[in-house]
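quick one: fe (ii) ion bound model?
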Amino acid sequence: MRRARRQRPGLPPPPSLPPLPPWRILVDSALPWVQPRLRTMRLQLLSDLHLETEDFEPEPLAGAEALVLAGDIDATWAAYSRFAGWPVPVFVVPGNHEFDGRDLLRALPAFRALCQRLGFTLLCRETAAFTASDGRRIRLIGTPRWSDFDLFGAAQRERAMRSARYFLRLMGATRGGQPLDAAAIREEGLACRAWLEAELARSAVVSSAADSCAHAARRWDATVVVTHFGPSLASADPRYGAQPGTASFCNADDDLLPRADLWLHGHLHCRHDYLVPRVGQRPTRVVCQARGMLDKGEPVGFDPQRLIEV
Ligand SMILES: [Fe+2]
Ligand SMILES: [Fe+2]
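yep, here:
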């Protein structure tokens, strides 16, 4: 997403907001759980290519078993055809810019039809199953997870929603014929959150008494969540940090993070790769692999040839 100016002259300074979560751990250490494992599924992740204006040619990544497109690939949709015939399955979560100048309710069926035509699996409040080459069953759960503006709590919601006006004007979208304003975005965000929470509450273990083998009774071996918006303040763009406008980029879904093994997102035009501790389990890994805008220097550090393992 393109970001609004930080603060216009004459406006009061932003409120004091909490710092980034202290548990954020960068994946550059020698922790045993980030070392290569014998059984891994390898993903290619791309988002925020903004091919409606950017000059970038996506290429398949050797060794990847699936490609995840996490939104803001092309506001015109035309460049999605570049992924047709991709050598591995393609999973798509739309970003906010896929709805630029469109009506949200009418555009979604058309976008779904486009994905079907191109052979992609659309994940818009949907779950897909994927069997990796190592035999493990991977559950992919996808939703744009629009912003609910509660990143800093209910007391800051109104201020966060006001700060969203600029980017919503840029989008120029509608929903059911009415302007897609912050209130409408919040409604969508809360619906995404409710769906995601219910989906993540499902147990991988089949409860039938007929299942005597614990391994055979598992419906999936790993859970990958894909959202366009960021799931935590820890995913904030370090150029802007914690300010009211950040609530247009990240949600406070920290309580859901431990229910996923891997959480992929876009929307922030920067890169993230961090771990969230879980009791008795490997940490949840959160990855953002956005490219962003060249004229803003955002692709510096962007590595489209980076495999993500789960
Ligand atoms: Fe973007
Ligand atoms: Fe975005």
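The radius of gyration is 19 Å.
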